[in-house]
Request: fold
Amino acid sequence: MLFLYIDPGTGSLLISLLIGFIMTITFSIRNFYYKVIHFFAGKEYKGTNDFSGELVFFSEGKNYWNVFYPVLDVLIKHNKRFVYLTADREDPGLQIDSEYCSSHYLGNTNQAFFVLNKLKAKMCITTTPQLDILNWKRSKNVDHYCYLSHAPMDIHANKKFSFDYYDSALCGNDFHIANLRQLERDRNSRKKILMKTGCTYYDLKNEGANEQKEHILIAPTWGDRSFFVEHGELLLEKLLEHKHRVLYRPHPQSWISEKELLSIISSKFGKNELFEIDKRVDNVHALSKAKVLITDSTSGIIYDVAFLQKIPIIAVDFEWDDGGYESSDLENPPSTKYLLEDFGRTITENEIYNIHNIIGEVSNVKMTEEIIDKHIFNFQNAGSVAAKQILSIFKGLK
Amino acid sequence: MFLINFLKNILEFFYDITFSYGWSIILLSLATQIIMLPLFWIADKIQDLEKARKDRMQPALDSIKNVQNKQEKYHYTREIYRKNNYSPFYSLTGLVGLLIQIPFFLAAYWLLLDYYPLIGISFGPISDLSQPDELLLIAGISINILPFLMTFANLLAAYFYTKNQDKSEKIQLVVIAIVFLVLLYNLSAALVLFWTMNNIFAIGKNWFLLRIKSTKADLILSNSFSKLLKILTSFWKEYGFVVFLLMFSVFPLLSIYFENIEELYLTQSSILSLIIVILIFTLGITIAIKFLVKNNYKTQILVFTGLSLFFLFGHFRNLLAAMGLEGKLAIFFLGLVFLLLPAIIIYLTLKTKRNLKALSNVISILSLCLFSIVILRIMSFGISNRQTLLHNNSQTTKLISANKEQLPDIYYIILDGYASSQILEEDFNFDNSEFEDYLIEKDFYIASNSRSNYMNTFLSLGSTFNMNYINFLSDSLPKGSTNRKIPYDMVLNGNVMKYLKDKGYKTVHFGSVFGGTKQNIYADYNYKYSSYMGEFTTNFLHTTILSPLVSHFAGKEYRKTILYTFDHLTKLKNIEDPKFIFAHIVSPHPPYVFDENGEEIPKSVNLDNSWNKNEKRFYIDQLKFLNKKVRILTEEILNISENSVIIIQSDHGPAFLEEDDKNASPEFLEERSEIFNAIYMNSSNSNNKNLYKDISSVNTFRAVFNTIFDEDFKILEDSTYYSTYKNPYDFTNITTTLDSLKISKKE
Reply:
């Protein structure tokens, strides 16, 4: 005992500290839970995250290669240096053989984010939305984040807050731009540089071959965002009633998740010689035979089919729960709706009864360059435009 | 404390008008509701603002309600909060209305729980406001009616209050009503009456608040209020972290305060000034660092680290000592933690470019938790112990007052831990007869076989000043209590003081360096070496990084306090006679600050106050110096008037032989209990007829008063009781042990 009459109370202080720490941890645990999980997801990449001053591309995987490639190709041809980071070991980007490009595999997506959160770079271009919302945080040492559209769709089907923390976005069409501006306004979020770019992967695609087209192709999405679950049987009945040749191409996920639906369809219509189920992996065969496509209004293939196959499209508008999607905050309807005004029809569920007449109406619509220009920027030339835009932003950064 | 006095004044004011404590309590309840009205209005507005904010976010939150992925949903919710500048903590603003009532409720609780004028006062059917009402008697069991009435009023108020609110809030209020019923059921009718009326008036208050809502004045006020709130919130955003740092900075001090709350009697003022010093210090450091690093998060982390190291230094050293690490190894560890660690933290904090918000949040929450814990503990002590403290205050005996005549000044000098001459000779090989001879020559009576009645200062002095044994405290205090307030109350305002005041004495108190006798608010005059930091301050600083400096500094202060006392004891000419002068000189008790000539001793000697066998020679040197000072003092006093009483006494002996608490050897007990006891009463030898060589300290004032005031106090049997510091009220009578040791020594 130091001074006889007073207890310094070290023990009591320790207990207070202990209780304090426990309380603090309890209070903070929710905040840290995901961070800890994220932390223990680990880090596979052993290389540097310091690309100070450089132009960095990040791809989540090989699926996006055809989006990046048209841009990267132009950069290499113009002797512009860049870094290519990917979260996919099989990404073709890792094979780029050029003195102007260094590419790195960062591990799986979570491991990649771990590196990216501390990235040092001048500019980072990616097709991954929701920066600074989920586990990918803006790094303080990256001056500029740029979003590169990986589909011609506008942003209705994107998850909430997908673009709020980007500094720029390379947009597909005017609807895309208008919607982003609306969200900026409503949410008071940062004003982005929005570029009229288009969709780069069209640079690599050829227009479909002209075979004899006489099938009605039904290619819905799956799950509760698809009209087909509820109205599929009715649609097939009506089409077969009017002797249309029908090719039903289920979504790849339906073979896994909707086996029951598929067995009902095939037992009911399988014997009808006008009806055929397409089980092929790729859609080339199906598209080459189709004269009209029937799908969901939110389907991702509408633009591709319209621009490349030039097949008119009938989309069934379907009320779906858009909570958790940007759609819930947008005033305008999805841009596909405008496209279908020019090249097909958007119908309600009730109009399925009248499908025969509607097919008649849309069959004669022809795709024109005018329509394409209205609905997509720089069709089949977006790669070089994107490269120029990226370089102009890059040069503008201090 | 301020609030309690405030309510008390209001209560007494109403009593002066109504002459009824019952009505006064009802009016007090009304008054508090009116006083709180503006606060309730503010709480109402805050709740409205919070509701508006929530309403604004609600559509966004609704839109993500069905998101299946939990992690995604969590992140979206956070993003919505971020976009709306919302923190989940804001939902606590719903509790503001309840929170503002708590101080008033606690103040009323403390005031009315044992407010003595209420004892035996009836009001309507209630026979005693200080007791539970016991209005209904069923099968021999009395039931308190008022608490049920209170609950009914409570529920009624809750019903009106939550009319427009959702179910969960209604349930909340019902639960609170039931809790109050349980809490207050067995408490005094006064308190229950107050709370019942409070709830009834609350109904009126809510009606009034609803009534003024959306009137012109209300709108103007709310407008300016929300503007003010905006300024405050933006201020909080920028400087809120400082508040958390301030909370953390006083946590170690409050923690020590709590640990010693029973012992620290009369030192609240020094704690308050320490708190102010710490707050100013923290604020200054924070401003300086903020100016240098220009980043709130970094400032908070750096200041927090600094404060932690500063305040936890002593505790860390104690911890190392407890683990058996001492000497060089301990210094190595201390160096590691207190040099290397801060260096690393400072380096990392300054270097990093990461956003340190999360870390800063953790620090804020931790600070808040630690602060709340210690405050709650102090408050809970206040509630649970108030009653025992107050009731034991009256444990003093009535004394007869004596006739007035020419009364002598009385000097009572305690030399803390001064050994008896026999012990000095046997254990220290020191012959104190020269000093004793001098005193005898000056007509002192030396009680050569004198003992103290207790082993610890506060018990020994308490019994001396109480003129009675204080063993009864072991029954009236909770088991294991270390309460020192009651013995010190006996010292400062006990039988001796009261008796002398009745006689017309002026009491003069010389402040010691030690908590209990630091000052005496009951004394007519307090003298004290002014800049002495005090025992608590010194001890607190010992737990901080200033510890090495404090010992040195404290030693100097210690010297000055003792020298000041000796120098000023006889310089009280402007105080009218007769006077009683009390000085508790905490010496020759260690620390050793005087050599035999009164010079400072070498710095190598430990400056703590433990009895270390290797330091016996310093003890003797210090004792020799005190002898010299006492001689000078005696000459001075007798020069002023030979008609004085001088008592020079130790409160207990040294403790060099102490092994540990459990195994007290007879030799230690003897060393500790035998005291030096010299009494001078007037010049005539016949005055010493009431003194005898075995007189123990409890009989000191009985004998002295019998002699000089011709009183007839019974001389009590001289016994000595042993108890430890940790368990001071667990007494063992050791008189026979001491006697037999003495006999065996003679043989």
Observations:
- Chain B has a mean pLDDT of 83.
- Chain B touches chain A through 55 residues (CB under 8 Å).
- The CA atoms of residues 141 and 451 of chain B lie 53 Å apart.
